[in-house]
Specification:
Helix content is about 20%, strand content about 30%. With about 150 residues, the chain is an alpha+beta fold. A 5-stranded antiparallel beta sheet has the order 1-2-3-4-5.
Length: about 150
């Protein structure tokens, strides 16, 4: 039976430096597994009239192995994962938020996140349902904000 992630640093002690990259990757895998899916506040809205129903869809759209991560300014041993998030209010005609998030597993077990805005976000509505729609999308950084371009 594998060790739980929270116990690995405790039991490995002095060996934890050698296991830092796999541990960081496991933390990122766990985070992505928990964060992806469709979520709603419908129950909360039914129980408390101060709240409306919000709906979030989060899907992984890209994954970079360690050797590719180095080309994107991430440390060579850090895996990189990319999520697309779409947030809606119930019965809305369009989402109120869409973005791409770049997640990097740091050697110390933390996760760094960089968020990107989408040009013409209406083109990507429903992008959480099909990863193929992200195949030709490229990211670039503007002087004021980070934005996905050439999508």
């Amino acid at each position: 039976m594998p060790l739980p992630h929270c116990l690995r640093p405790l039991l490995l002690g002095g060996v934890s430096l050698l296991a830092a990259a796999p541990l960081a990757a496991d933390v990122l895998d766990d985070y992505v597994r928990v964060q992806t899916g469709s979520f709603t506040t419908a129950r909360q809205a039914r129980l408390d009239a101060r709240y409306e129903t919000a709906i979030w869809h989060v899907a992984e759209i890209w994954q970079q192995p360690r050797d590719v991560a180095a080309a994107t300014a991430a440390p060579a041993a850090s895996p990189v994962r990319w999520l697309y998030s779409e947030s809606w209010m119930k019965d809305a005609k369009a989402p109120y938020m869409q973005r791409i998030s770049r997640l990097v597993a740091e050697p110390d077990g933390t996760i760094s996140v960089r968020r990107y805005a989408l040009p013409e976000p209406q083109r990507f509505i429903g992008g959480w349902q099909d990863r193929r729609s992200w195949r030709n999308c490229r990211l670039a950084r503007s002087h004021r904000s980070r934005a996905a371009t050439s999508c």
